[in-house]
Each structure stands twice: as structure tokens, then as C-alpha cells.
User: Which sequence fits this backbone?
């Protein structure tokens, strides 16, 4: 149970026994896990896992067949079946036959790094040739490393995220066999003993700090990397290895306040203190921490699992630690499907909605046209349709081709943007909520029964007929109102006033044709300046100000089509962040969705 994949590979190599190393390169769609590795020996005995079930049985059969052949490796794609769905997902596997002395020696070196809990990258190169290579945090390497591997491996070590890189000339999977995070336990009582056992099972290297030698023995903490005993807690912590990826658990009444004060001054990832809500209030008042420091302070500790025994508390604590390390919601996987939202449109107002939903833990898929006609491109996720990948306020969106690819992007905390204006993916995605944020001032095919909850923005929809809820989008007293009956205020066609300017702010096409511009959003423009052309006919700036919106060049426009937006506030205008109007509308959508799910 406690034998790792690298440990088994090293053992077999040292005893001159051939084996196959199997690793998941990438997955598409639904699979039991996206990362995993295992070793299959000549008897078919498996150490490690790539998810179990049919996938693992298939890999085991292929591994034994590989050992009996003259092949060095196999790159395979296994189609995952789930019930009646015959192609729910695809798991891409690499099988590497380890029959040579050099290959077996390499795995022994990887095992040595693992045994010393050294953070490192294992690279499995597929082209230009099959090769095994490694880079350790101290700079040591394994194998004949490819120059691109060194460059990419340093990034993987820094970001702590495995990568599968596939180019015309080089293909390699870079994995992280040892978790970058480490666990520091303050106190050697029953709870931390149970926490240490579970931490070892999930691969977290552990240190134990105590002032009493009898509570930090090898018998109590057999897998601890360090067992530190000192006269005072301060001296003990000085001997501990602590960095930005250290997660700390204090389970000792004698040292809780002192240790918390010492640790919160350090750059750590997490600090959990075992105790009641009363203790939490007392500690919070005593610590008087900076806001940034208090955000990593957890007391009471653990997830709400109804834990009572030390072993149950350990499950709760490790679950919370993993939630923090992996930056996930900690929600029940059953409920993740209830958090998928489809948003039609990725313009500037839609982006305000999308960002608020994303930051609140919802999994948003954006549906767009092939060539969206947004003008505030610096704050519109729809721009991913042109650029492939964009970032707005630190959140990344990426164009994808399929729903499977979209769900894979969720695991990378990336918002998928799909070319699907007709919502053909609706049945496949089955979202809990559909938001029509096209802002077309009319209904372009949204129906009230498209999802359990359908929300539409602005005029052109009637609540209770076209959608469950309509959100008011007109600036003023009613902005962001949640309407459960009736319609939003009709569109007047007149832009809101900014510094006394209304219609003058917005530029329209003088005729139908191809739009082109040499300007860039953020440029300061002057009255009479040529902003763009449509089939050669110029469009002039009617006022001075900052160019805040501009249509993508090369698009075909109709006569009187909105192509640009000038903000008369000039330098003071912000063209890089989402507007307060967009966030107000986004807040209303979030309120409506949260309310719906909380009552469901």
C-alpha cells in the first residue's frame, strides 16, 4: 500500500527485472483521472494507478504485450465508455518498456530524488525520439536532456503544474512525481499522528515539531521526513524547513498562540489550528494579523464532515489542505454538474457576468460566433475567437473546438469559449443555467426550457415567457434589477452621457463594407482624426478623448453599424478593466443563480 511507483520501478531495476512504466499524457472529455502512473511487472502485477477499471485493465494487457515484443514504447489512446455513452472521453497513455540498464538506472535516480523529497520534473519525450529525462530543484539532471526540456521544466517547477507539450519538432510530457507542498505538524498528539498517516498516503512529506521528545518518536511518526525536538517552540521552528509551499497544522493547546504568531509572519501557504470557534475568535483578536496573513489562517480547522475521532478529524484536515493546495472549491463532485453555466455572448457586459460567476466557483462555457462584433475588445472574452487566448483582469479564456476540450479547460481554471451561436452543445453540456448575454435587444433563439434556470439580459425578453428571469441593463436607478415578470426598459438607442457627451461618443459605419483601422484601443484621439475606414471611406472622431472601443479590423459591417467608442474623459478613462455597469449586471445574475440553487 505504501510502495510508490518510483519505489517499485527502482526495486525491479535493481533486481534486473524488466517492467513497463505507464503514464497518462493527457485526457479529453470525461475520465476517472487526468494524471496518474503505474508500473506493470513481468507477472502482470500493478503498482500505482491510472484510474482503475477498463482503462487500467487495457493498459495492463498492453504492457504485458509490450514486454513480449521488441518495441520500446507505445503511445495509445483509450476511449472511455460510461453507461450508454460509448465515447465519453479519451485517455492518452505512454507505455515505456524498461528493459535496459540505462533506463533502470534512471528510475533508481528518480527514486533517490523522491526518497529525499526533492521537488523535480520527470520528462517523457515522445519525439524526436523516446527518452526519459529529469530536472531536480537543485539543478541536477537525469538522462540526455533536450534543450527545450530544460526551459520547460524550470517553468513546471516554478508553476507546480504538469504540462504536455506537442509541437512539430518536440513532444514531451513533464510530470511532478513529488508534491511541491510539505506539511508541518506542531504537536505530536493523537490528531497529528492521524494527520501524519493520512498525509503520507496522499504523498505529502511531513515534519513534526515538539518540545517533548516522547511525542515525536519514530514509532509515532514513522514516515516523517523530520522529527524536531527543542527546548522552545521558537527554537524548534528555526530548525524546520519552511517555505511558501508549507502547510502547517497546529494541534497542541500549549503552543497554539505562540506557534501561530511565529508562523503567520512567515511566507507559508496555509495555517490550520485545531480548536473551537471560541478559540478562533480569541486567536484572531490576539494575532492582529495583516489581511493577507489572516487569509491563510484557518480555525476551526478542516471541512465540515461531522468529525469526532482523531482519524475522522484527520480526513477533514487533509481534505481542507488538499482544497487549498489544489485551489479547488471542495464541493461535492456530484454537485459540479450543478455549477456549469452556459453564457451566450462574450462582449464587455457579458464578460462582467462571466468573471463574477467564475470567481464564485461556477464553471462557465462561453458561446460565441466565429467573428464576434464586439468593440470593447480589451475587456471582452469574445476576443479569444480571434486571438485564441485572452486575459481579462487576471482570468484567462481560451477558444476551444469541442465540449470535451471545454471541460478539460475547467481543470486548468481557464474559461472555454466555443463557436456555437446556435447552442448545438446544449444537450451535451446540460447546464444548470443559461444566460443570454448577447445584448442584441431581441431574442435570438433562447427558450425558457433550455435549462433549469434561464436568465436574459436587457430588453427583447419577457420574464416568465422567454426566460425565468430578466436582468435590467439600463443605467440608472433600476440597473441590475431582477425581474421575474415583465420586460426590461426598452432600448432608446441613445448612449448614456459621459462628461456631457452621449451620441457623439459612438462611431458608426457610413456604409456597408470591410472595416479597417490603424488605431488601437487606449489611443488618445482628437476631433476630426481618421479613426478607421469602411471600404476606403473614412470615419472621423467627432470629439477628443480615449479610444475605448474598436471593432476588429477585417470584419464586414452593415451601414450604421457601431464600430468604435470614444471616452471624453481621455487619460482618466480606464479601458483595461470591466465597467461598473457590467459588474452590477453580473452581480444580479450571480444573486439570481445562487438563490435558485439554494432553494433547489
Assistant:
Amino acid at each position: 500500500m505504501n510502495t510508490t511507483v518510483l519505489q517499485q520501478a527502482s526495486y525491479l531495476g535493481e533486481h534486473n527485472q524488466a517492467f513497463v512504466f505507464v503514464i497518462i499524457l493527457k485526457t479529453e472529455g470525461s475520465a476517472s483521472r487526468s494524471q496518474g502512473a503505474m508500473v506493470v511487472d513481468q507477472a502482470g502485477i500493478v503498482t500505482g494507478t491510472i484510474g482503475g477499471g477498463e482503462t487500467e485493465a487495457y493498459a495492463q494487457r498492453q504492457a504485458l504485450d509490450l514486454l513480449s515484443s521488441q518495441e520500446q514504447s507505445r503511445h495509445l489512446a483509450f476511449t472511455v465508455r460510461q453507461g450508454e455513452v460509448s465515447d465519453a472521453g479519451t485517455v492518452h497513455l505512454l507505455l515505456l518498456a524498461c528493459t535496459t540498464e540505462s533506463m533502470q538506472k534512471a528510475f533508481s535516480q528518480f527514486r533517490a530524488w523522491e526518497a529525499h523529497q526533492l521537488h523535480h520534473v520527470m520528462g517523457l519525450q515522445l519525439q524526436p525520439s523516446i527518452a526519459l529525462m529529469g530536472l531536480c530543484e537543485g539543478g541536477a539532471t537525469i538522462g540526455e536532456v533536450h534543450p527545450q526540456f530544460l526551459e520547460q521544466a524550470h517553468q513546471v517547477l516554478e508553476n507546480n503544474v504538469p504540462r504536455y507539450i506537442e509541437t512539430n519538432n518536440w513532444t514531451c510530457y513533464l510530470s511532478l512525481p513529488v508534491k511541491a507542498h510539505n506539511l508541518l505538524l506542531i504537536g505530536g498528539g493523537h490528531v497529528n499522528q492521524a494527520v501524519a498517516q493520512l498525509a503520507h498516503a496522499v504523498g505529502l512529506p511531513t515534519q513534526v515539531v515538539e518540545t517533548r521528545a516522547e511525542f515525536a518518536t519514530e514509532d509515532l511518526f514513522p514516515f516523517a521526513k523530520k522529527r524536531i525536538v527543542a527546548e522552545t517552540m521558537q527554537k524548534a521552528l528555526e530548525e524546520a524547513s519552511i517555505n511558501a509551499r508549507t502547510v502547517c497544522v497546529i494541534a497542541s493547546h500549549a503552543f497554539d498562540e505562540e506557534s501561530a504568531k511565529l508562523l503567520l509572519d512567515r511566507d507559508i501557504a496555509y495555517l490550520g489550528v485545531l480548536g473551537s470557534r471560541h478559540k478562533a475568535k480569541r486567536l484572531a483578536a490576539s494575532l492582529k494579523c495583516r489581511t493577507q496573513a489572516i487569509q491563510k489562517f484557518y480555525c476551526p480547522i478542516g471541512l465540515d464532515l461531522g468529525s469526532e475521532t482523531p482519524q475522522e478529524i484527520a480526513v477533514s484536515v487533509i481534505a481542507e489542505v488538499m482544497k487549498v493546495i489544489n485551489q479547488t472549491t471542495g464541493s461535492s463532485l456530484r454537485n459540479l454538474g450543478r455549477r456549469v453555466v452556459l453564457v451566450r455572448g462574450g462582449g464587455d457586459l457579458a464578460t462582467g457576468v462571466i468573471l463574477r460567476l467564475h470567481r464564485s466557483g461556477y464553471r462557465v462555457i462561453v458561446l460565441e460566433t466565429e467573428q464576434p462584433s464586439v468593440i470593447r475588445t480589451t475587456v471582452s472574452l469574445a476576443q479569444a475567437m480571434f486571438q485564441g487566448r485572452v486575459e481579462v483582469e487576471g482570468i484567462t479564456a481560451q477558444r476551444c473546438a469541442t465540449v470535451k476540450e471545454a471541460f478539460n479547460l475547467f481543470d486548468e481554471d481557464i474559461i472555454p469559449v466555443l463557436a456555437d451561436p446556435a447552442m448545438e452543445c446544449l444537450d451535451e453540456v446540460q447546464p444548470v443555467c443559461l444566460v443570454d448575454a448577447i445584448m442584441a435587444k431581441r431574442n435570438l433563439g433562447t427558450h425558457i426550457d433550455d435549462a433549469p434556470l434561464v436568465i436574459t439580459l436587457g430588453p427583447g425578453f419577457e420574464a416568465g415567457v422567454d426566460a425565468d428571469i430578466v436582468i435590467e441593463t439600463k443605467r440608472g436607478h433600476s440597473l441590475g434589477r431582477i425581474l421575474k415578470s415583465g420586460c426590461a426598459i426598452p432600448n432608446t438607442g441613445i448612449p448614456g452621457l459621459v462628461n456631457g457627451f452621449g451620441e457623439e461618443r459612438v462611431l458608426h459605419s457610413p456604409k456597408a463594407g470591410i472595416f479597417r483601422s490603424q488605431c488601437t484601443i487606449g489611443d488618445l484621439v482628437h476631433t476630426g482624426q481618421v479613426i478607421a475606414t469602411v471600404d476606403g471611406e473614412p470615419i472621423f472622431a467627432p470629439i477628443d478623448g480615449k479610444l475605448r472601443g474598436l471593432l476588429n479590423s477585417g470584419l464586414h459591417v452593415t451601414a450604421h453599424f457601431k464600430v468604435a467608442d470614444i471616452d471624453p474623459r481621455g487619460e482618466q478613462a480606464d479601458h483595461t478593466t470591466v465597467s461598473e455597469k457590467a459588474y452590477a449586471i453580473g452581480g444580479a445574475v450571480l444573486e439570481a443563480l445562487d438563490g435558485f440553487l439554494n432553494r433547489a
User: Anything to note?
Assistant: Residues 521 and 548 are 5 Å apart (CA to CA). The radius of gyration is 29 Å. The mean pLDDT is 89.
